[in-house]
Specification:
Elements lengths: L5 H6 L115 E6 L5 E6 L49 E2 L13 E3 L10 E6 L2 E6 L10 H4 L5 E3 L7 E10 L5 E2 L6 E9 L4 E12 L5 H39 L20 H11 L18 E6 L10 E6 L3 E4 H12 L30 E3 L9
Helix pairs in contact: 3-4, 3-5
Organism: Phaeodactylum tricornutum (strain CCAP 1055/1)
Family: Belongs to the alpha-carbonic anhydrase family.
Protein name: carbonic anhydrase
Length: about 475
């Protein structure tokens, strides 16, 4: 039964929750004694009377609102209003999205992966779900987790630490089998939501750090815009034995970790991720800086990590120095791409002249790269000149504002997801500005390679692995109750 007249609505018993003044229709058919099956809700509470107050005016409406507006709608709603969302909403990002995800390669290598968490993704980390294990236990895991089948690239970073590796740290992680893929495991994976499990903090002093000899604008620190992170890779010290004078200098940044780790551990690299990978008591963050150390005694990686919060007033001059070195790499990549497109444009122009007919260049979007007016050499020179000549300290208090932290043992947060990482996550986020966050996103999400191909594997503006199951692991927080700052 469909009621369409306003007068009928006013006379009927108010057992139907009215949605509007017209098209009053319960979900399962109207019954004046049953309202449980309806979803309509009255949008206001009109005062019903037995007779209308007056006829509506036909005068020209005024330009300003009435001082005593009517409680009735000025015009009836649509005769056929939509009552449900579109049956096929678009899943594609808006055209205004400045960081649209890149399509996977048509024939990707076996080591390709991305951060696509949609249900039918082919290369992503999966989406959360309940997973039944072989022992009939149920855990929160990730369905459609394609990272578990990601292979090792020819230049696998972790090969350096294997028995067949190279440099002073060759063999240091051989017993950990760091190239083995563990991304489909549950229980020791990272990142996690950091919530103390009741375990006691056994650390009794802050992380004691030394900035080392290398400056980030020099060649001893390699600046890399990788598909899923920004990385500073530090040159290794000459040899492993720090008791030998020849092994002591020059040295990268290094740190002494509390609770009997024994000695200083060298920084191997620093990664910057957007957004933050770890949560702290359910709170999400805009980014994360992860300082990786190799510990020769325990033969594992130790990561001092700090989450990042962006605010309108949070400009961080010290963090900007790191942004500047990555911006220099980004500008050079864009300039090289621009030069390549200019070269291709000239070749096409010459072909037009020789062939004497219209042609369509596959570089028709060259104009979008045409804002770069300087030559490649000028860009490289200007980038080097603009960098601050400082001995950048990754442990600076503007980067790691607290000496206290959360502790747990876990894994790498990307393939091969090796479970040989001890995490020290600062309990206080680094502060940066919103414009600095956008600059990091631009560098990471809009970078191109030497062939002008976009490199980012982000999805939904994210290169953060989804939160993994803690699975009963000890997680503890070290606070001022356990220790204060060193004298």
């Amino acid at each position: 039964m469909r009621l369409i007249a306003i007068s009928l609505c006013c006379l009927m018993p108010c057992t139907v929750r009215c949605r509007s003044w017209r098209n009053i229709e319960p979900l399962h058919g109207w019954n004046e004694n049953d309202t449980s099956g309806t979803i309509w809700r009255m949008e206001f509470n009109p005062l019903f009377t037995s007779a209308p107050t007056s006829m509506p005016t036909t005068a020209t409406p005024s330009d300003i609102p009435s001082s005593r507006p009517s409680s009735f709608p000025s015009a009836p709603p649509s005769a056929s209003p939509s009552v449900a969302p579109s049956p096929s909403p678009s899943t594609a990002p808006s055209e205004s999205d400045p960081y649209r995800p890149n399509d996977p390669p048509k024939n990707p290598e076996q080591w390709y992966f991305n951060y696509d968490t949609s249900a039918n993704a082919l290369y992503g980390p999966g989406h959360a779900g309940i997973i039944q294990q072989q022992n009939n236990q149920f855990n929160v895991g990730y369905k459609n987790n394609r990272w578990g089948s990601v292979g090792n690239p020819p230049n696998n970073y972790w090969t350096e630490f294997m028995d067949n590796g190279f440099g002073p740290w060759r063999g240091i992680l051989a017993n950990r089998n760091p190239t083995r893929n563990m991304c489909d495991r549950v229980g020791m994976q990272s990142p996690i939501d950091l919530r103390p499990s009741g375990a006691v903090c056994d650390e009794h002093h802050e992380v004691r750090s030394r900035r080392g000899d290398f400056q980030i604008f020099e060649d001893e620190v390699t600046k890399e815009i990788q598909p899923n992170k920004l990385r500073l890779r530090y040159k290794r010290r000459p040899c492993r034995n720090l008791n030998e004078l020849a092994c002591q200098e020059p040295d990268p940044p290094n740190a002494d970790f509390p609770n009997n780790w024994g000695g200083y551990a060298d920084v191997t690299h620093i990664d910057f991720k957007v957004p933050g990978e770890h949560l702290i008591r359910g709170e999400k963050f805009d980014g994360e800086m992860q300082i990786f150390h190799i510990h020769r005694g325990r033969r594992r990686m130790v990561v001092q990590s700090v989450t990042i919060r962006a605010t309108s007033t949070g400009f961080n001059s010290y963090f900007q120095e790191a942004i500047d070195v990555f911006r220099a790499v980004y500008d050079i990549n864009i300039a090289r791409c621009s030069a390549l497109r200019r070269k291709e444009r000239r070749l096409v122009s010459n072909a037009h002249i020789i062939l004497g007919k219209n042609m369509t260049s596959k570089f028709h979007d060259y104009s979008s790269w045409g804002d770069f007016s300087t030559g490649l050499e000028d860009v490289e020179l200007e980038s080097k000149r603009s960098l601050r000549k400082s001995n950048w300290d990754p442990y600076h208090e503007l980067l790691i504002p607290s000496i206290h932290f959360y502790r747990y043992d876990g894994s790498l947060t990307e393939p091969p997801c090796g479970e040989f990482v001890s995490w020290f996550v600062s309990d206080t986020p680094m502060r940066i500005s919103l414009s600095q966050l956008e600059e990091v996103k631009t560098i990471l999400f809009k970078n191109v390679d030497e062939n002008c191909q976009p490199t980012s594997v982000q999805f939904g503006h994210s290169v953060a692995r989804p939160i993994q199951e803690t699975a009963g692991r000890p997680v503890w927080q070290c606070t001022p109750r356990e220790f204060g700052p060193d004298p």
